[in-house]
Amino acid sequence: MYGLSEKQFHLSFVEADRQKGITGTNLLVLLERRLDNVVYRLGFANSRSQGRHFVRHNHFLVNGKQVNIPSYLLAVGDVVSVREKSQKVQAICDSVEAVVRRGVPQWLDLEKDKMKGVVKNLPVRDDLTMPMQEQLIVELYSK
């Protein structure tokens, strides 16, 4: 679903397991905080893979600095914005127009006219509407 390789997913699981709290929920929160996913969630891309592609091609700034690493983890208060040159890219403009139908999660704040978004707070399990059984993932990787 998130477009990660097995190795990347396993490393995310190890990081989630180290953190305090429920491992499955921690894993989902880590995956949601990735830059490529946040670009998708804010509506700058039509899919996570397209978001990954846009990030790799330097279309986004995080807190005013260019970031081209899709796995970059965002924190509360981070600002994700489209570079000035990239605001003219037709695919990004089309995606922003389509975000109204899909909606933006409550943990993100989108300023559509400025083409930027802010991470208001960390996502919680209730914010994730995908039908996912994270407990099964934890059981598989705990072996």
Rg? 15 Å
Terminal CA distance reads 22 Å
Report the CATH superfamily of the domain at 33-122. RNA-binding S4 domain
Structural class: alpha+beta
3D structure, described in words:
Helices cover 43% and strands 12% of the residues. The chain is of the alpha+beta class. Strands 2-1-3-5-4 form a five-stranded antiparallel beta sheet, covered by helices on one side. A hairpin with a 4-residue loop joins strand 4 (108-111) and strand 5 (116-119). It is globular, with a radius of gyration of 15 Å.
Question: What is shown here, in short?
Answer:
With 143 residues, this protein is of the alpha+beta class. The protein has six helices and five strands; from the N terminus they run ααααβββαββα.
What's the layout of helices and strands?
Layout: H1 6-18, H2 23-32, H3 35-42, H4 48-56, E1 60-62, E2 65-66, E3 79-82, H5 90-102, E4 108-111, E5 116-119, H6 134-141
Antiparallel strand pairs: 1-2, 1-3, 3-5, 4-5
Helix pairs in contact: 1-2, 2-6, 3-4
Tag the structure with descriptive keywords.
single chain; 143 residues; five-stranded antiparallel beta sheet; 5 strands; 43% helix; globular
